[in-house]
Amino acid sequence: MHEDEIGTAVVDCAVRLHMELGPGLLEAVYEFALTRRLRQRGLRVERQIGIPIHFDGLQFDQGFRADLLVEERVIVELKCVERVHPAHKKQLLTYLRLSNRRLGYVLNFGAATMKEGITRIIHAAGGGRPADSLHPDETARGLHSQLGDER
């Protein structure tokens, strides 16, 4: 399965889950429920997985802990806050870069609608400026045509 297909499944499950549960629960509730929904779709999902990183000839067995790792290819960081901070997005971009992965999502279940809470981050390997989507407005516009309104 291609990363974009995995990402589509992640977004679809997150939107549906947010519509069913609403905002304001503990992050762990959304983590468990999203994991369950993705597994029901036949995807391999690992929760709170330590990701090793290599730096300067050293290996750190748990360089960071990803909330979700889907199909060993897509990192998903869950939040349940009023507003995602730019540091959350930078953190995910660092995770992608250090783990040699291309695609990740910050999913904020604290947003009024999930469409407002989805940030897709793409790490372009090979240096230069990463091709990332750090602007929720752009993400929301792209999702509007795919998902319609949540109302």
Fold and architecture overview:
The chain is built from five helices and five strands; from the N terminus they run ααβββαβαβα. It has helices spanning 3-21, 27-40, 86-99, 114-117, 136-147, and strands at 45-55, 58-70, 74-79, 103-108, 118-122. The longest helix has 19 residues, at 3-21. Helix 1 crosses helix 2 (27-40). The protein has a five-stranded mixed beta sheet. The chain has one domain (3-147). It is 42% helix and 27% strand. It has 151 residues and is of the alpha+beta class. 32% of the residues are buried.
Share of residues in strands: 25-35%
Total beta strand runs: 5
From the N-terminal CA to the C-terminal CA, the straight-line distance is 31 Å
User: How helical, in percent, are the residues?
Assistant: 40-55%
Large-scale geometry: globular
Biggest sheet layout: 5 strands, mixed
Number of helices: 5
Structural class: alpha+beta
Q: Could you give the order of strands across the largest sheet?
A: 1-2-3-4-5
Number of domains: 1
C-alpha-based Rg, rounded: 15 Å
The overall pLDDT average reads 85
Low-confidence stretches: 126-151
